[in-house]
Amino acid sequence: MPETQNQASTINPALEEAMAISLRGVDELLPREDWLKKLQRAQSTGIPLRIKLGLDPTAPDIHLGHTVVLNKMRQLQNLGHQVIFLIGDFTSLIGDPSGRNSTRPPLTEEQIKHNAQTYYQQASLVLDPEKTEIRYNSEWCNGLGSTGMIQLAAKYTVARMMERDDFHKRFHSGQSISIHEFLYPLMQGYDSVALKSDLELGGTDQKFNLLMGRHLQQEYGQEPQCVLTMPLLVGLDGVDKMSKSKNNYIGITEEANAMFAKTLSISDDLMWDWYTLLSFRSLDEIAELKAQVQQGRNPKDAKVLLAKEITTRFHSAAAAEAAEQDFINRSKGGIPDDIPEVTLSGAPLGIGQLLKSAGLTASTGEGNRLIDGGGVRVDGAAISDRGLKLESGTYVVQVGKRKFARVTLAN
């Protein structure tokens, strides 16, 4: 009987499910056949596979884009495998050149320690902390020393390194490449050797670094890891990948009402990509929901379900329900339950100055423009007079759809 038929005959329902979960939403799984063999071995021996994700603490906070890979880790963790959350405190000192058109400034040790303090705490909102191995790559990188570093560097050629897309482009465009940047993929690959990983995950921009791990494991006589890359999550603008620099992100520690409302702001088309990459619903459930929308169900219903799922994950079911009600109140012009309380003096006070002093606008000029556009309400009534002065008392002041303050004005 051909080998492929023998292999197919050993794929039982549990193995099929494990492969389906592994492949959900992925960009690439390399080599797929090797991963299937690893899953089969784990199933037959009961020894969990070692699954690695490395993140450099380049910023103190994690956004939903980062959780795409963390979600995949959690799915594999739920299958019973050992996930390793690797904090790249050593590699952060080098600076990851991936996707860069210039040398990335390395972080200081103080910055790294500060950022790493919150990284794992936030990642634990997705991963099961009791079943997660936390490691820092300074554990083995610091011990390499100059001799070990030279021996490691001898295991890869400059020609192969220059095949990397960002190095290739920078070289041919005359952009500088520092020697230390060549060390980054080598050190990330060496992490896989130190951890004896069976699978390493990352974004599509990390493919070169992940494959380096396979190469170095073979050089050190280990069974090479498989590589799984996940797509980069498109941000709120529907154009660029989610990024703080693009201001198109949702931080996973953002307040529940903002998280819910921002999720509802994405386009109907983008929603389905978010479902695949961020939701823990089964693919069958998502397909059924999509079919209902295609048959006439309001797409907003599906978006609300997604917004509630995401908000529940990082807050609670009660917070998600409250956020939905807050959104409904705002959309109807209602007043949220929790609005800032502001106390001001100087009554009678001009409306423009009041808006600025209450922190609802950056300037009186901005306030006047909003008044002209019908964007300012006091106790639910639209204001059209720039010259309005408010006497002492308490007022609910609204700017646009989302900014509210309960202003107590004294003489």
Automatic annotation (TrEMBL):
A motif ('KMSKS' region) lies at residues 241-245. It comes from the Bacteria. GO terms for biological process: tyrosyl-tRNA aminoacylation. It comes from Lampropedia puyangensis. It is found in: Cytoplasm. The lineage of its organism: Bacteria, Pseudomonadati, Pseudomonadota, Betaproteobacteria, Burkholderiales. One of its GO terms (molecular function) is ATP binding. Signal peptide: none annotated. A motif ('HIGH' region) lies at residues 57-66. Catalyzes the attachment of tyrosine to tRNA(Tyr) in a two-step reaction: tyrosine is first activated by ATP to form Tyr-AMP and then transferred to the acceptor end of tRNA(Tyr). It is an enzyme of class 6 (ligase). Pfam families: S4_2, tRNA-synt_1b. GO terms for cellular component: cytosol. The gene is tyrS. This is Tyrosine--tRNA ligase. Its EC number is 6.1.1.1. Homodimer. ATP binds at residue 244. InterPro entries: aa-tRNA-synth_I_CS, aa-tRNA-synth_Ic, Rossmann-like_a/b/a_fold, S4_RNA-bd_sf, Tyr-tRNA-ligase, Tyr-tRNA-ligase_bac-type, Tyr-tRNA-ligase_bac_2. It catalyses: tRNA(Tyr) + L-tyrosine + ATP = L-tyrosyl-tRNA(Tyr) + AMP + diphosphate + H(+). Its main location: cytoplasm. Belongs to the class-I aminoacyl-tRNA synthetase family. TyrS type 2 subfamily. Keywords: Aminoacyl-tRNA synthetase, ATP-binding, Cytoplasm, Ligase, Nucleotide-binding, Protein biosynthesis, RNA-binding.
